[in-house]
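Is this the right way to post structure tokens for a design question? Let me know if I should format differently. Anyway, here goes:
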């Protein structure tokens, strides 16, 4: 019996290289996985022009005309309200109306966050949806949550972020009893700002998560935790710094291998191993940042994403839907609510 295909709505016009890389990523995804269908929302003429370059099973890709585009600089709330025929908004309504199981967009982060909360909707009991992003570490990957959705957060929100992140890492990454830490300026419980000090004891008391205490910024690359919890201001600063340092180090390493004949020969000898090492430290394989806490999955890859990251974001949606993460988050919240009332 053929498995039911997961339908992913893709904002074909969102991103620095749209629609070319979006279409290429969609084709790569359906050619790799026969159990996914992609609905491409965008300017029909431009999307079809890109599609004509590739070979794929026609029943796995559909183009839906959306004549306008939400630009990065537009005010998010206004854009969502006034551009209902945009590629991003029409893709979101496809998810809301049950025409798609998940959505991917490389477009405006602000608009995507607003639309995710308002159009797709939050799971009952979730205070706010949170953006979660995987970063490579010496021991695998760590999920940073929140990294962009809630600059000003409350302690109870951070507790929910911890619960959602823990479920995600266990169900999606196969990590049994993932270690959860709160990002702090020291390991001692008495350290931190007001938000961290208020959240720490709540996380200690929270059933269903493996809270291991505070984690400093330097502890994350070393793989001290599987889930790092914080407000979006802290998370976004950490993430951008992490990416910037990684990029700078890669540039310096490559540059140092070209300084002399000796280093060039050495570079050729270690080229394969170096490439494999850098691949391990790439976040491309994980697609994008899922917005956890919504009724259905919304994924935000980088605005500059190429086809490989878009393909992996689409396949990420398939894994998310098959694991039924949203239902597990809802069930976990209900169990914790019953435990608190008992």
């Amino acid at each position: 019996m053929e498995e039911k295909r997961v339908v992913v709505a893709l904002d074909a016009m969102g991103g620095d290289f749209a629609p070319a890389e979006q279409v290429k990523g969609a084709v790569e995804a359906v050619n790799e996985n026969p159990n996914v269908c992609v609905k491409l929302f965008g300017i029909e003429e431009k999307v079809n022009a890109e599609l004509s370059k590739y070979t794929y099973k026609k029943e796995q890709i559909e183009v839906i005309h959306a004549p306008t585009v939400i630009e990065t600089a537009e005010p998010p709330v206004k854009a969502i309200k006034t551009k209902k025929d945009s590629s991003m908004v029409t893709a979101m309504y496809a998810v809301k109306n049950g025409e798609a199981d998940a959505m991917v967009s490389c477009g405006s982060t602000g608009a995507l966050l607003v639309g995710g909360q308002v159009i797709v909707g939050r799971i009952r009991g979730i205070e706010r949806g949170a953006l979660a992003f995987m970063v490579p570490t010496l021991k695998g990957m760590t999920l940073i949550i929140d990294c962009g959705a809630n600059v000003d957060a409350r302690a109870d929100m951070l507790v929910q972020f911890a619960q959602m992140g823990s479920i995600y890492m266990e169900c999606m990454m196969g990590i049994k009893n993932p270690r959860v830490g709160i990002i702090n300026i020291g390991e001692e419980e008495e350290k931190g700002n007001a938000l961290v000090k208020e959240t720490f004891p709540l996380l200690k008391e929270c059933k269903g998560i493996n809270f291991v205490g505070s984690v400093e910024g330097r502890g994350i690359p070393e793989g001290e935790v599987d889930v790092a919890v914080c407000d979006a201001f802290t998370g976004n600063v950490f993430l951008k710094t992490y990416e910037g340092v990684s990029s700078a180090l890669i540039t310096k390493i490559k540059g140092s291998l070209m300084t002399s004949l000796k280093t060039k020969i050495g570079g050729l000898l270690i080229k394969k191993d170096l490439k494999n090492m850098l691949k391990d430290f790439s976040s491309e394989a994980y697609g994008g940042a899922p917005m956890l806490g919504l009724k259905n999955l919304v994924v935000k890859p980088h605005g500059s994403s190429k086809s490989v990251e878009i393909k992996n974001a689409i396949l990420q949606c398939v894994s998310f839907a098959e694991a039924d993460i949203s239902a597990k988050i809802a069930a976990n919240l209900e169990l914790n609510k019953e435990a608190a009332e008992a």
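Format looks fine. Someone answered above. Worth noting: The chain has eleven helices and eleven strands. The two ends are 44 Å apart (CA to CA).
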